[in-house]
Amino acid sequence: MDGNAGDPLQWYYEIPPVSRTYMTAAFVTTALTALDLVSPIQFFLNWKLVMQGQAWRLLTTFLFFGTLSLDFLFHMYFLARYCRQVLHCRLLEEGEFHRKTSDFVFFLLFGAVLMLAAQPLVSLPFLGSSLSFMMVYVWGRRNEHVRMSLFGLLPFTAPYLPWVLLAVSVLVNNSGALSTDLLGIGVGHMYYFLAFIYPEVSALTKQATRAHT
C-alpha cells in the first residue's frame, strides 16, 4: 500500500482542478461564516440585490452549504468522491469528460444557469446542494451497473445513489433539503436527457428514415 495514501494534502491535490477549485471555494465560504468573519446574508441569492449591483450572489449561492455541520461534511464528501470521478472519467462508460475540462465546465454552467432560472419558483436562497446533486445524478446514470453500498450496509446500484443521498439528507436536515436536492436531480436529468438520450434517439430516427426511403 502507498505510504502516502492517507496523506490529506496528497488527497487534496489529486482532486482534478475544477472540482478542487469548487470544493476549496465552498469550504472557505463556509469557514468564513463559521468564524463570524462574514454573514451568510452576504451570500444568499436575492434577485433584487443582484439587480442593485451585488452580482457576486450569483456565484456565492453555489458556494455556501450551511454552517460547518454534519450535512455540510456529508455534501463535501460525496462532491469530492463523485465529482472527482466524473472529471477523471474513471468510472464513466464512455469517458465523456476525460481530458475535456471545457465540457465539464459547460456541464456545470448548464446546471447553474437552469437553477438560477428556477430559483424564483422554488425560493431557495442557496443552490450549492442542488449543483452537487446534479453531478451525482449524472454520474449515477452513466454507471448504471456499478454496485455500491451506503456505509457498507445497504447495497444498491449507481442510478439509485442520488435517491439514497436524498433520503439521508432529508433525515439529517429534517426534510429541509427535499426541494433543494430534488432541483439538482431534475436539472441533472435534463442534462442527461439532452446529452445522452436525445442524440441516440435522434440518430435512430434518422437511420429508420433512411431505411424507408
Automatic annotation (TrEMBL):
GO terms for biological process: response to stress. InterPro entries: DER1, Rhomboid-like_sf. It holds the Pfam family DER1. It is found in: Endoplasmic reticulum membrane. It comes from the Eukaryota. The chain crosses the membrane at residues 21-43, 55-80, 101-118, 152-172, 178-198. The keyword Transit peptide does not apply. GO terms for cellular component: endoplasmic reticulum membrane. It is a multi-pass membrane protein. Keywords: Endoplasmic reticulum, Membrane, Transmembrane, Transmembrane helix. Belongs to the derlin family. May be involved in the degradation of misfolded endoplasmic reticulum (ER) luminal proteins. This is Derlin.
